[in-house]
Amino acid sequence: MGSAARVLGLDVGKRRIGAALAECDLGVVTGLETITRRTLREDIDAILALAERTGAERIVVGLPLHMDGRESPMSREAKHLAGKLGAAGQVPVEMYDERLTSVAAEERLAARGLNLKKMLAEKRKGAVDQMAARILLEDWLSQARVD
After folding, report:
1. CA–CA gap between residue 110 and residue 107 (Å, rounded)
2. Which of 58-89 are b and which e, b meaning 16 or more Cβ less than 10 Å from the residue's Cβ?
3. Element (H, E) at 11
4. Residue 88: helix, strand or coil by DSSP?
């Protein structure tokens, strides 16, 4: 893992990228925002600007694999985005298995009493994307502390 104090987590989707920030020293993960995807260049710029604004020293990109571990079209997309972020060279980038984070995010939001059916579709999806990024980072952080 390294010793980064702040880590930006990304849940990459076709239309949106959910973002969360881990304060590793405190073990706290906070949802930040949802980036609406545009072009790859604009997505990279938005992510790097967010990393700079938050003082992130590492970026963890969720790798959405099938349940049996095979890659999906979205895993290839996430790898491509991570590769471009890494090539920018501003902060180290790593991939982390994110199977089931979106399902867990929907369950966690529902448990908080958020009626996902009544929320506007885009707002609901953005909330799920941010929560998925939080869960990704929470898993990553707990795994990093064990290693």
Report:
1. 5
2. bbbbbbbbeeeeeeeebbebbeebbeebbeee
3. strand 6-12
4. helix
Query: Among 57, 132, 69, 67, which residue's Cα sits nearest to residue 94?
Result: 57
Global pTM reads 0.79
Domains in the chain, CATH or no CATH each? 6-146 (3.30.420.140)
Each residue's pLDDT tens digit, 32-76: 999 999 999 999 999 999 999 999 999 999 998 777 878 888 899
pLDDT, tens only, 72-120: 888 999 999 999 999 997 899 999 987 656 555 556 556 655 555 555 4
DSSP symbol at 20: E
Tokens encoding 14: 């076709």
Q: At 23, which amino acid appears?
A: E
CA distance 26 to 100: 25
Copy the structure tokens of residue 93.
């980038």
* Cα 118 to the center of its chain, rounded Å: 25
